[in-house]
Amino acid sequence: MTEYVTGTRPHPGEARAGGRGIPSQTDGGGTGAFDGHEAAAILEETRGTVDPALQAALDSLPGSMRRISRYHFGWEHADGTPAAGNAGKAIRPALVLAAAAALGGPAARTAALPAAAAVELIHNFTLLHDDVMDRDATRRHRPTAWTVFGDADAILAGDALQALALGMLAADPHPASAAAAARLADCVVELCAGQHSDTAMEKRGPSEVTLDEVLAMAEAKTGALLGCACALGALYAGAPEDDVEALDAFGREAGLAFQLIDDVIGIWGDPRHTGKPAGADLVARKKSLPVVAALGSGTPAATELAELYALPHEQGDDMERMTLAVERAGGREWAQEQAADRMARAMSELARAIPDPESAGGLLSLAEFVTRRST
Amino acid sequence: MTEYVTGTRPHPGEARAGGRGIPSQTDGGGTGAFDGHEAAAILEETRGTVDPALQAALDSLPGSMRRISRYHFGWEHADGTPAAGNAGKAIRPALVLAAAAALGGPAARTAALPAAAAVELIHNFTLLHDDVMDRDATRRHRPTAWTVFGDADAILAGDALQALALGMLAADPHPASAAAAARLADCVVELCAGQHSDTAMEKRGPSEVTLDEVLAMAEAKTGALLGCACALGALYAGAPEDDVEALDAFGREAGLAFQLIDDVIGIWGDPRHTGKPAGADLVARKKSLPVVAALGSGTPAATELAELYALPHEQGDDMERMTLAVERAGGREWAQEQAADRMARAMSELARAIPDPESAGGLLSLAEFVTRRST
């Protein structure tokens, strides 16, 4: 395994050996460096590059589809008047552009813009549909599209965004565009299967769900598109097949690390980012990764947790007892170790394709960013 | 305008001038020839060619998506056991293959198989989603996918079929595949806008809907994919841009003729094909083309029809009076003349690209077939 020895980057193995699992932004101490500023700058630059392409793509839609999509992206209010935009952090297009730049320099980064826009369109198509299926009423602090326009329009706008994304790549004259479109289409199928698993698992009892199932679901739902984003950047850089696969694996592993940490925050909260109230996932009886790990531990705490999870929310929850049961059953420690392990694998895959830490810098910053934030 | 002079094909202008509008299968008399056998043979051959490609495509899906899709295509029962298949008449893939053969011969027809399969996958993706939005419980005499698997799974399977279709073209090494994928993606956006118009118009009063709006909706919902199918066949035959556009226009016009005749049958029924009971569209207060034309005629019958349409179905319908009102207001005659006119335009576009009637034979048979059947 090639490892970056730069002195300015945290060494994934260290974090794990140190037993801290997931270093937080406040304990950057020993390994220094990461403060999120670099990633924030990359994301801001990406939004500036990709937004005009996204806006132009949406402008090509017929009026009805354009209106719903522009609302969803935050560029229009519900009444159709212009809004400032609230289209998320652009992590996926940032990964496309960073991977293209890392493997092919500035020219590849510029050429990869359609791929970056396509990946972001696919992400938003899945959000539109997932919100309908999950009956989620809020997205990015605004009412979801289906609550404003109805289910049919939200489904149709999602369908149109998928077509727009794959059509944009098909129409792109770049020599990698066909392979990129085929890969992105495969990824969509995986995202659909992941969302299916998620909704299917919600209907089962917490003890009927295995850890392997939840991990596979998280990989399909979260890891696949992050991996695909990195792979598309590599394709647009003209990288050899091995490097494309390594970049895909990098994104997948980082995506799983992100999900694990997001699940930890969903139970124990985050002292700095309080977007999610501590314990929210327990109140919702969510079969998150730490909970399923805890339930499968065979410990007395697992039995206690299973009993608490079986009680309906209406009866009032003993949050402290629940949280403690997950912790005592080893759910938190497992998730933190898994996250660190996944990040180590991500770094290893990245180093395989891009041995030079200078070139890999943008991708490293983004991976660190997603695994240190909750939203 | 080039016209076929074969003595064996009905002359669209004649049918119109004779005031009969839409010749039925029993009155083939003066112009002879069309008995549907040729089209039936083409469709059967198409099913035999395209079904293996479709089955292979669905087999590539993850288990959950495969199961829902195979049920939708009629290849599996709801319990997952094999079924004989009930995947519709394959008109769209037949148009792809016939267009490729007409412009490029047998080799082009063979090469166009992925395009034929892709078009059929797109058609079925829209059926899965439309059934969810329209709450239709029956499709091809079987319970719709959403009634069996739930809304979420029907939405996800539709999403996966769209990805499969566009991904299949993107991965096809044929030189026309990228242009075909881009064109099919554009068509999906048009289909979405058409379905949006349809659902939006249902919420408005019958007199608030204009004929232009209903015609535009029918073109987007029905004409677009028939046109795209023909255009994809032309692309795979390596045809020049003008011929691709002519084939698209041929399919669109034939699709509109089909919709007009389908709407006529929805009111007056069909003496031979009783798949739809006569008057069904009036009972449902459907804003079909003859009804909207009748309502906009400014005749006393239009006023009467508007009053009858305003009554809720529960109060008991005077079907005879309603049917007569549409007829007296000129709705039937208008629709029949429009259909004949659209077919004439379709023939004209076809003759422009393929002057030889022998070569155009398959496409002519299919166009005649779709405009003479109700289902």
UniProtKB/TrEMBL annotation, chains A, B:
<keyword id="KW-0808">Transferase</keyword>
<dbReference type="InterPro" id="IPR033749">
    <property type="entry name" value="Polyprenyl_synt_CS"/>
</dbReference>
<dbReference type="Pfam" id="PF00348">
    <property type="entry name" value="polyprenyl_synt"/>
</dbReference>
<feature type="region of interest" description="Disordered">
    <location>
        <begin position="1"/>
        <end position="35"/>
    </location>
</feature>
<dbReference type="InterPro" id="IPR008949">
    <property type="entry name" value="Isoprenoid_synthase_dom_sf"/>
</dbReference>
<keyword id="KW-0460">Magnesium</keyword>
<dbReference type="InterPro" id="IPR000092">
    <property type="entry name" value="Polyprenyl_synt"/>
</dbReference>
<feature type="compositionally biased region" description="Gly residues">
    <location>
        <begin position="16"/>
        <end position="33"/>
    </location>
</feature>
<comment type="similarity">
    <text>Belongs to the FPP/GGPP synthase family.</text>
</comment>
<protein>
    <submittedName>
        <fullName>Family 2 encapsulin nanocompartment cargo protein polyprenyl transferase</fullName>
    </submittedName>
</protein>
<dbReference type="GO" id="GO:0016740">
    <property type="term" value="F:transferase activity"/>
</dbReference>
<keyword id="KW-0479">Metal-binding</keyword>
